[in-house]
Design a protein that fits this description.
alpha+beta; about 25% strand; 2 domains; single chain; Mlu1-box Binding Protein, DNA-binding Domain; about 55% helix
Length: about 170
């Protein structure tokens, strides 16, 4: 399980459907609420403003008296966490909103750089193919250079379009 740090508060992140989700209890702690249920009550009051992509309930394993139990917990995407913080009236709310926006920007920049890297790899592959076709003697060199270039393009494409679990 991945963790994010906001000031001195650790937020546990779970990945589902290729998205990052943070528990309501962790968001409540980060916002400075004494009760974990405060975030859920904020959500309940402003439910119509949240989309399905912003919040969901997941069953999570917890240790109980009778062994492992599954409990239902509310989780928020980073966009959902930002919206919760918009409704929060705590001293940490403003700082938390800025922090979440920085995380979202970093994710967008990573996606852009992956796309950019993919197109650069494809351009390099195409340039090599053109070079090999222009001069016959580069053909044997081309046979050694192309497989790593194709492999790199394929890897980047796989990162951009991860396979869905069956």
């Amino acid at each position: 399980m991945k963790e994010l740090m906001f000031q001195d508060t650790s937020l546990r992140v779970i990945e589902r459907d290729g998205r990052q989700w943070v528990g309501a209890a962790d968001i409540a702690r980060a916002l400075g609420y004494s009760e974990a249920g405060k975030v859920t009550r904020l959500y309940d009051r402003h439910r119509v403003e949240f989309s399905e992509n912003m919040t969901q309930i997941f069953e999570m394993p917890t240790l109980g008296v009778s062994g492992n139990l599954l409990t239902k917990s509310r989780f928020f995407s980073l966009r959902g966490a930002h919206l919760v913080a918009m409704f929060a009236r705590t001293s940490k709310g403003q700082e938390f909103r800025r922090w979440v926006l920085d995380l979202l920007d970093a994710q967008d920049n990573k996606k852009k750089s992956l796309i950019q890297m993919y197109y650069e790899a494809r351009a390099e592959e195409q340039a090599q193919a053109k070079f090999a076709s222009m001069c016959g003697r580069g053909l044997s060199d081309h046979k050694h250079v192309m497989p790593p270039l194709r492999r790199r393009s394929s890897e980047l494409l796989h990162e951009l379009q991860p396979a869905l679990p069956l």
